Amino acid sequence: MASLIYHDVLDTVRTPPLTDGNNDWEPWHVANANLMLSVILRETPVLSQTHAFDSGVVLGILMDSTAEEDNFLELIKSGRVRVKLQDKHDSNLVSAFCSKLLHDPNFIFSAWPEIHNDPKNEPDYRKDIVDYVKTGTKQGLPEETAEKIDKLIRFSARLTESPIPIEYAEYDPNLLPSIIKKKAKIACEQEDELSKYYTQLDEANARGRSVLYKIINTMDELGEIRKKALREFVDNAYNTVVAFSLKAADTTLTWTADEKSTSVKDCIPAKTHLRKPFSANDVADLTVLSWKDVTGFIRSSNSSSPDYFTKELAAAKFLAKVSEHDGMGLIFRPKIFSKLKDIVRDISPIAGIFINKNLTSAISNYAELASYNMENKYISRYLGMIISKTDG
After folding, report:
1. For 373, which of 48, 129, 306, 379 is 20 to 30 Å away at the CA?
2. Contact present, 137 and 131 (Cβ < 8 Å)
3. 216: CB partners within 8 A, 6+ apart
4. 54-104: per-residue pLDDT in tens?
5. How high is the pLDDT of residue 265?
6. What is the pLDDT of the chain when averaged over all its residues?
7. φ, ψ for residue 222 (rounded to 5)?
């Protein structure tokens, strides 16, 4: 069975809708790039049903172009990217989407501004959307909405066509409260300045993120910076719960700079393996990649080898080739490093991203990535050799 990885950068809170007031594409690019790199490195990303039908990033891939949609859905159909539904009463993704529309009025949709609970706002199209799914009749539904639904239906069909049967998350309603409780205990023991507020969150015994958000919003004496820190902890705790429900062996969590206050490392089940996602700097040069590139690489490369180094080596060469093809090249500013070009390119799937900025930075960041794969002796050996040469 494939080892699954969960990416919290796809969390709809971390990728807010693009509106007139928010045109920041960076979180979307980072999320898409993390997903691409995960597939290239032969990991198996797993999406929650919310990611599948309400992530602007995922829907953006489907709406981008026919080629991007086709190639991404090929990965869905082949099981290279997995989706797990929430309720066993739903037999497919579209059914899960309609269940949320009809039976969960408190669910806040991020990628569907036409679905809301504000009677003062424009018409709420949730009933019209369900009717369109069932009958194909638009009844005044905006064209863009109808197109998104068509894309979602196609996504759902590819998921159903996969040789992997429809999978379901196994949600533990007690996990989020237990993480909050443990955090409150640790904060009190360490005399953390936020301990009082973690205790308040613990006393709520909340099973959902929205309830915790509401409590944080009432803590006016905290100020916005500390409120943000608490929300970041809640986001990390929530995403840990989602990852756990999806049986993800690895979980990438976006950690705040103030890790002591917002970290969930000491509060989660021992078998949850945390690591940081690739950052905006890490993936800055990946705009040249397309899902067609990614799918082509998967089709053409050898997937039988269980050796992580072999997979990384193939990924590194692929990224270098794409970069050179698009005229980016791999630029080594200090001439002394030029002889190391091939070995750096060969051992590191992210070296090509960092290399035109600073080789030492590339090595440093790759060392952090390598720490998550300590069983790989090749990485330690090659890193040691490169670092010893650059030190001089």
Report:
1. 48
2. yes
3. 197, 201, 222, 227, 230, 231, 234
4. 999 999 999 988 999 999 999 999 999 999 999 999 999 999 999 999 998
5. 79
6. 77
7. -75, -35
Give pLDDT, residue 381. 35
Closest CA to 362 of 381, 341, 378, 376: 341
Residue 46's φ and ψ, nearest 5 degrees, are -120, 130
Report the percent of the chain where pLDDT is more than 70. 69
Helix, strand, coil percentages, rounded to 5, for the chain? 60, 5, 35
Q: Give the type of residue at 67.
A: A
Tokens encoding 371: 């720490």
4 φ, ψ (degrees, to nearest 5): -90, 150
Gap between the Cα atoms of 98 and 133, Å rounded: 8
> Which of 174, 242, 169, 233 has the alpha carbon at shortest distance from 12?
242
268-324 pLDDT per residue, tens: 877 667 777 777 776 766 666 789 988 988 888 755 555 555 565 566 656 655 544
Tell me, what amino acid is at 330? L
For residue 225, the one-letter residue type is: I
Residue 378, CA distances (Å) to 185, 189, 214, 217, 349 in order? 41, 41, 49, 49, 14
Task: Give the dihedral of Cα atoms 56, 61, 62, 68; nearest 10 deg.
Answer: 180
Question: Regarding predicted confidence, which is higher, 325 or 58?
Answer: 58
Question: 313 is written with which tokens?
Answer: 């080596």
More confident residue, 169 or 343: 169
The residues, ordered by sequence, that sit 6+ positions from 355 with a Cβ below 8 Å of its Cβ are 330, 331, 332, 344, 345, 362
- Nearest Cα neighbor of 352 from 392, 391, 316, 313 is 316
DSSP code per residue over 250-312: EEE----S-HHHH--GGGS-TT-EEEPPP-TTTTTTGGG--HHHHHHHHHHS------HHHHH
Inter-helix orientation angle 93-103/143-161, to 10°: 130
